[in-house]
Amino acid sequence: MKVLLCLLLISAVAALPFEIRDPTRDPALEQPEETFARSDVDKDDKLTFNQFLLTDLPYVQLKKEEFNNLDIDHDGFVTKTEYEQHYQKEKESAYDLKAEYFGQLYDQFDENMDLKLDINEIKNVLEKRFLLKPRENFSQIFKGFDKNNDGALDLEEYIKFDAEFPFQELDPLDAAEKVPQKSDHIEFKKEKLPMMKNN
Predict the structure, then answer these.
(1) Does this UniProt record's set of keywords contain Calcium (predicted)?
(2) Which residues span the domain enclosing 158?
(3) What confidence tens digit (pLDDT) does each residue in 106-162 have?
(4) Looking at the structure, do residues 62 and 130 belong to the same domain, yes or no?
(5) Is 141 a member of any domain?
(6) 178: domain CATH number?
(7) For the chain, first and last CA: distance in Å?
(8) Whose C-alpha in 34, 87, 160, 170 is 20 to 30 A from the C-alpha of 150?
């Protein structure tokens, strides 16, 4: 009987799972008192503004990674030269990406290879790249970007068009319309949602 009682007691005791938490990996698990203790670097039970910034652990981790990327020689300092070189590289990279984007755009849509996009080629860009179709006033808007009035947009004009075009003056392509791709053709079907009335 004693053995049975012992087995019953042992089986009734349930061990709770034990988990080791690492707040640096999951900041949501860090308790407020842990955050304060971690941020109070000088342990004086007060936070300076710089220490207060440390309470935002994801921000601290992000800035640490950014600092390490900027500190090219890993000496613990970001010099003015390192700082300027980093952002110059980013600027050049952004310029290269834009050049590649516009190069591909003209390569794909400039059908007559005149390094300009006429109104029909622009409509094609809008349909294939943005899934938008022009309204009746599109030719007037287009003329506003065609500064030299040659009926097409050169690269400089297209860059301005791309940055400033009022996209609210376009409509989305009808889902039933074909959206031709470079390599394959996709056709969308019109389907009614359950809450739509039958017409």
Answers:
(1) yes
(2) 110-187
(3) 999 999 999 999 999 999 999 998 899 999 999 999 999 999 999 999 999 999 999
(4) no
(5) yes
(6) 1.10.238
(7) 77
(8) 170
> pLDDT tens digit string along 50-70?
999 999 999 999 999 999 999
Q: Is residue 129 part of a domain?
A: yes
* Number of structural domains the chain divides into: 2
92 occurs within a structural domain: no
Tell me, what's the pLDDT at 30? 85
> Is this structure's pTM higher than 0.90?
no
